[in-house]
Design brief:
CATH topology of the domain at 4-221: Penicillin V Acylase, Chain A
Strand content: 15-25%
Radius of gyration: 22 Å
Structural class: alpha+beta
Number of strands: 22
Low-confidence stretches: 1-19, 195-215
Mean pLDDT: 91
Helix content: 25-40%
Number of helices: 15
Largest sheet: 13 strands, mixed
Shape: globular
Length: 557
């Protein structure tokens, strides 16, 4: 049994007078080979890991977490990884419980949720496969060394949670794993032949009152894991390039943290050039989930998710893989270029979280000029079960001035095989055509108006569905969705936006905003009668947050 020593000392805090909140620190020491640990509520750089935490304020909308691994420990130290997970659990356990309490209303509707046995068995087989591969290769292959490190960090987060949460906030291991693996779960559920239309993970029919509140689209029932997003890369005349991303998700998930992980123990390891990473995120996970990630190797990584309409492809999904959330973390750490990121990410493809990934290499951007960026400055990697197709889209940006991404594959084979071609034939181009869907047309029409960071912020929050003819009076046909205003209103839409440019990167700045767009629309309000049914722990009735500037990489000074 794991042992734990907690030192309950007076918490040392550091006032941030500009925000009226206090910064909370904690440090974790691994005390034994069985990963027993000691937590102290202050900063101690001698610890295996230490972290700072700032809660959500009206001025930010995001909590802020920075986790440091001990730079004097080996780069493959599983103790450092585990401690990084533990210290995050210690500082964020209340937010973890809030997010789970919100999410389970959709993921596991019913009074007594439990893990679906098909999903459990698949994950067990996949874990056994990782055990074998790590045991065999982690001492000789840097990739599998990183797999072991990621697993240890995730285990630290999950296994320590019960020590920090109070009696009424306890969660089972499978519940915590669901949060950790959230980005892969949509496809794992489908691959395990468990559908949200008739079953939840519980294996029981969705409660009728909740089912009635879930919209349908082209005959398909709502899937609470199915994400949509808008992403945008835009070149400016001064040669800089901006990248923006708006996550489309369930409003119940607006319990947000922006995180920085500084793997100081990997700083001098040539296999991990991306040893520091900042990213928008959520409680209970060690990756972004949005995704929007910035590494010290001058890479910006984002994506929009692709739907698998051709469900026969799920037959290709095998437990002999590395899940997408883990492959993304490893690619971020092991890559110094867009090409390398794609190569690392493409190993051991899972066929889960099938995305169009966009990787912007700021080193190449800065070596070029407006409409004359060098090869592989911006690359995309489009995944479907058993296959990833890569494409250098720099020439497109040099010619058109931008790249837009909106949950539709660019590659013809991926578009066809995933079933988009058949869906367009049945229902038309509005949701399924790469060039003729609403968001493609809006990006193409408005991109010339984007000339600086402020106009990048505006386009990524754009929803003028009542007046824009391209939106056809549909609030979902916009860059920032507002499905709560649709004919079948639902608590879903663009829940945030992140924006960065190559010049902002030089100043260690990232812009973020939490909450549905209010740019030309009334604010979303949970207290409205049609939405008051939903409990929203840790989220105000109205998310009326401003943009705020986050300090990238949060260097320990």
């Amino acid at each position: 049994m794991q042992k734990i020593i907690l030192l309950f000392l007076v918490c040392i805090t550091f006032p941030l007078f500009c925000q009226g909140v206090s910064e909370k620190w904690a440090s974790v020491f691994i005390t034994d080979s069985d990963m027993s640990f000691k937590v102290v509520p202050y900063k101690d750089p001698q610890a295996d890991a230490y972290a700072s935490f700032l809660p959500i304020t009206p001025d930010t909308g995001f909590a802020q977490l920075t986790v440091y691994g001990n730079g004097n420990k080996p780069s493959d130290s599983l103790e450092v990884a585990y401690a990084m997970g533990v210290v995050e659990s210690y500082l964020t356990n209340k937010m973890i419980f809030d997010l789970w309490s919100n999410s389970k209303q959709l993921w596991f509707p019913g009074p007594h949720p439990s893990e679906n046995p098909k999903v459990r068995d698949w994950l067990s087989q996949q874990s056994d496969y990782l055990d074998r591969m790590v045991s065999k290769y982690s001492t000789t292959d840097p990739y599998w060394k990183e797999v072991a490190f990621v697993r240890s960090q995730g285990n630290g987060l999950i296994e320590s949670y019960s020590q920090f949460a109070n009696e009424t906030s306890q969660l089972e291991a499978w519940e915590l794993r669901t949060l950790l693996y959230a980005v892969d779960m949509m496809d794992l559920v489908e691959a395990s032949n468990v559908t949200f239309s008739e079953q939840s993970f519980v294996g029981k029919q969705l409660m009728k009152e909740k089912q009635s509140k879930m919209p349908t689209h082209h005959g398909q029932k709502f899937n609470p894991f199915a994400p949509s997003c808008s992403a945008f890369v835009k070149s400016f005349k001064d040669g800089s390039v901006a990248t923006g991303h708006t996550t489309w998700g369930i409003y119940l998930t607006m319990v947000r943290i922006v995180k920085t992980y500084r793997y100081e123990n990997k700083k001098n390891d040539p296999n991990t050039p991306g040893w520091a990473i900042s990213f928008s995120s959520y409680p209970g996970t060690i990756t972004s989930n949005d995704d929007f990630m910035v590494t010290n190797a001058e890479l910006i990584i984002t994506e929009t998710t692709l739907n698998v309409y051709n469900t026969s492809l799920y037959k290709r999904v095998t437990p002999k893989c590395v899940l997408s959330y883990m492959r993304g973390i490893i690619a971020n750490r092991m890559s110094s270029s867009s090409e390398q990121w794609g190569q690392v990410y493409s190993r051991y493809v899972s066929g889960t979280q099938n995305n169009e990934w966009i990787v912007v290499d700021l080193k190449k951007i800065n070596s070029g000029s407006y409409r004359n960026y060098p090869k592989n400055s911006v690359m995309i990697f489009e995944q479907m079960p058993s296959l990833i197709k890569s494409k250098d889209v720099t020439d497109f940006i040099n010619s058109k001035g931008y790249w837009g991404s909106y949950n539709i594959p660019y590659d013809t084979q991926v578009w066809t095989d995933l079933g988009y071609k058949d869906m367009e034939h049945k229902f038309g181009p509005d949701d399924y055509s790469w060039s003729d869907c609403a968001r493609a047309k809006i990006f193409n029409r408005n991109q010339s108006l984007v000339t600086d960071i402020k106009s990048t912020q505006r386009i990524m929050r754009l929803n003028d569905y009542l007046h824009d003819p391209l939106s056809k009076k549909n609030p979902e046909y916009a860059i920032a969705d507002r499905s709560d205003l649709a004919d079948q209103p639902f608590i879903m839409g663009g829940i945030d936006t992140k924006v960065i440019s190559s010049s902002m990167y030089q100043n260690n700045e990232l812009l973020l905003i939490n909450g549905p767009t209010q740019q030309s629309l009334k604010p979303f309000d949970f207290s409205m009668p049609q939405f008051s049914y939903w409990k929203h722990y840790g989220i105000p009735d109205v998310c009326d947050y401003p943009w705020f500037v986050y300090d990238l990489f949060s260097e320990d000074k």
